[in-house]
Amino acid sequence: MNSCKSGAKGKNAVTSDVSAWFRWAYNKKIVGAMSGGIVYTPDGEPVDLQQMMRQFPCPE
Predict the structure, then answer these.
(1) Are 49 and 30 in contact (CB under 8 A)?
(2) Is 29 within the bounds of a domain?
(3) d(CA 19, CA 5)
(4) Which residue range is the domain that position 49 belongs to?
(5) 30-39 contact pairs (CB < 8 A, 24+)
(6) Beta-bridge mates of residue 46
(7) In the chain, helix, strand, coil percent, each to 5?
(8) 14-34 pLDDT, tens per residue?
(9) pTM of the predicted model as reported, rounded to 2 decimal places
(10) Is residue 51 part of a domain?
């Protein structure tokens, strides 16, 4: 609660890099959802977020 009052981000806050990667991967139908450090493929398979970001790097 104190972190909210001070303006600090919580531990579940998504960084802009992760957010941009997820939007790109979602639009390309590589992932279907994300929860915490896990992304889900369109088939519903849970995969580690960092592993997916390495396997499918977002083009700049």
Answers:
(1) no
(2) yes
(3) 24
(4) 14-55
(5) 30/56, 36/12
(6) 40
(7) 40, 15, 45
(8) 789 999 999 999 999 999 999
(9) 0.72
(10) yes
